[in-house]
Design a protein that fits this description.
By secondary structure, the protein is of the alpha/beta class. It is built from 9 helices and 12 strands. The strands form 3 sheets. Strands 3, 4, 5, 6, 9, 10, 11 and 12 form an 8-stranded mixed sheet that branches. The protein has a two-stranded antiparallel ribbon with strand order 1-2. The protein has a two-stranded parallel ribbon with strand order 7-8. β3, α5 and β4 form a beta-alpha-beta unit. α1 crosses α2. The longest helix has 27 residues. The relative contact order is 0.15. The model has no long low-confidence stretch (mean pLDDT about 90).
Length: about 300
């Protein structure tokens, strides 16, 4: 007789598309994954995947089984979670995957409130500003700049933020004036490493009216902020970073203002978990309390 664990093998292969990847997540050998899928196909009497060198893709039968398997998975997870929910003591651990800036400057400083309210809850904060950063789903809650296309997750707008240009007073006083965007060509501009930047919403200079050279390329927002703060040059920074730093001043505030949106992402099989819902509520309340963030449900 087949159990719910067979459906878990099915779900991981459906989400990841490769036996080796599913085996890594499930912490078993890939041959074990293959045997479980074969057994499940025999039990339902239909082929669930088309096998190809490029990956395993769901057949029509697999597509029909997917929502039912997700419902079973969600129910099993919720059952395990019910014990802690019933006692109002939040236990376990939640991994939050997010961009560098949002993680370091928004989430981390506010974790104290989450932990004070839930002292037994473990929190893992993982930051990276990468394209498709949540594709492998090694997270419980994520905040991203790109809305995932995967049907295995639920996503909703979390908050809008603005990017502006910032530099120190001393840098601006000792370098040529900046009155138009084209003046930036004569200045040290600090931004991401172009060869590593694959997040489309952050490729802000690709459509610039002039060919802007990026003199200093740093792979994370904290490094960019510290470089600008030291007087090295001009850096595009989220307003929640630049406006909060008294050592920085806004440059060309009327000419350079770029609005971007953070998405809140949760794997569908985890969205009913009490600890996951609690962290989502924490994130919504955190952005609602910031002057330089506009909650995603509000108008632009």
């Amino acid at each position: 007789m087949l159990g719910a664990d067979h459906l878990q093998f099915f779900l991981e292969v459906a989400r990841l598309g490769r036996l080796n990847e599913a085996a890594r997540v499930l912490e078993v050998d890939h041959t074990t994954v293959g045997r479980r899928i074969t057994a499940l196909e025999r039990a339902v009497g239909e082929r669930l995947f088309d096998r190809a060198p490029s990956g395993w893709r769901l057949t029509e039968a697999g597509e029909r089984l997917l929502p039912r398997a997700e419902a079973v998975e969600s129910a099993v997870i919720a059952a395990y979670d019910s014990q802690s929910s019933a006692t109002d003591i939040l236990t376990g651990s939640v991994r939050i995957a997010t961009t560098d800036g949002f993680g370091a400057f928004i989430i981390a400083p506010n974790l104290v409130g989450l932990k004070e309210a839930n002292p037994h809850l473990g929190v893992e904060l993982v930051t990276a500003t990468l394209h498709n950063a949540v594709s492998e789903r090694h997270f419980d809650v994520a905040v991203t700049l790109e809305r995932p296309a995967s049907r295995a997750v639920r996503s909703e707008p979390l908050a809008y933020y603005d990017l502006g240009l910032y530099a120190t007073d001393n840098y601006l006083a000792t370098h040529s004036p900046i009155t138009t965007m084209s003046d930036l060509r004569r200045h040290t501009v600090i931004w991401y490493v172009d060869a590593l930047l694959d997040v489309e919403p952050l490729r802000i200079f690709d459509t610039s009216a002039h060919n802007q050279k990026i003199d200093v390329q740093i792979s994370n927002i904290t490094g960019q902020w510290l470089a600008a703060q030291s007087g090295l040059g001009v850096a595009p920074l989220p307003a929640y970073i630049g406006d909060s730093d008294p050592r920085l001043v806004s440059v060309l505030p009327d000419a350079f203002r770029i609005r971007r949106l953070y998405w809140l992402v949760v794997p569908r099989e985890l969205e009913r978990l009490h600890r996951v819902r609690t962290v989502c509520t924490f994130l919504h309340r955190t952005v609602a309390g910031r002057d330089n963030l506009t909650p995603g449900g509000e108008s632009r």
